[in-house]
Write a structure and sequence with these properties.
alpha+beta
Length: 246
């Protein structure tokens, strides 16, 4: 049993690093090759509100924890749900959020959200609606002007070219969406505001929410992704070199 658990741990770390590396590649300049081959087959999609006729499944996982503020700045964030690959992730560089003075910790929440009463007018929802929230002392904090963070969503298998959309102020706004080619059915978008975000299979054209330059985000994600991927590699090599106990 101990050996089985030790083998799962490096595999999970490697998978997390692989997905982060994919996000970095997509956020970077066009023409760069992917930095890994594959994260392997994904597990079945977990619905927050199962569709009619859908039976037994594991519940969709969620994120809710506090992280320490570093020198008055929000720390780098690379957080995601527990599925493989994760169904929802938030990636942000250091100092991406406007933190009130004297803040010690911020809270990161990625949770299932019921679909708004106003559904997307341009298509149908593809999987879950997720609420992305970063807060300090119970109050949501905004992304700094000129900054953006990356949201990654995975949808049910086989959907035809979904796009990511954010619901705010009674309106669905289409985001510039890129496919994570080596993470099954996963998509990334840079956003300048958080909130309710979902994948939508579109049938008409809607406005695209503008984003800003994300060079700083690419560099921050590169550091986090390479560190996670390297740690997974070390753990995997150690696991191979450790003799099995009988």
């Amino acid at each position: 049993m101990l050996g089985s658990q030790s083998r799962r741990r490096p595999a999970g770390v490697l998978a997390a690093g692989a997905v982060l590396l994919a996000a970095v590649w997509l956020a970077g300049p066009a023409g760069q090759p992917p930095l890994y081959d594959s994260v392997g087959p994904g597990e079945p999609y977990r619905y927050c509100q199962p569709p009619p006729g859908f039976t037994s499944q594991k519940p969709a996982s969620q994120v809710d924890h506090n992280v320490a503020v570093l020198n008055g700045q929000s720390p780098p964030i690379a957080d995601g749900t527990a599925e493989l690959p994760p169904q929802a992730q938030l990636l942000a560089p250091a100092n991406a959020f406007m933190i009130p003075p004297a803040t010690v910790t911020i809270r990161i929440v990625i949770s299932c959200a019921p679909p708004p009463a106003l559904l997307p007018p341009d298509g149908r929802l593809d999987g879950n609606v997720y609420m992305f929230l970063v807060s300090a002392s119970g109050t949501p904090v905004n992304i700094r002007p000129g900054q953006s963070v990356t949201v990654v969503l995975r949808g049910p298998a086989g959907a035809p070219n979904p796009v990511m959309e954010r619901f705010a102020d009674g309106q669905w706004m289409k985001l510039q969406t890129q496919t994570l080619g080596n993470a099954p059915d996963s998509y990334a978008a840079n956003v300048t505001a958080l909130g309710q975000i979902a994948l939508v299979i579109p049938n008409t054209v809607v406005p695209v929410e503008p984003t800003t330059d994300h060079t700083g985000l690419v560099l921050a994600l590169s550091v986090v992704a390479i560190a996670v991927f390297a740690a997974g590699t070390v753990l995997a090599l150690r696991g191979r070199s450790t003799p099995r106990r009988r």
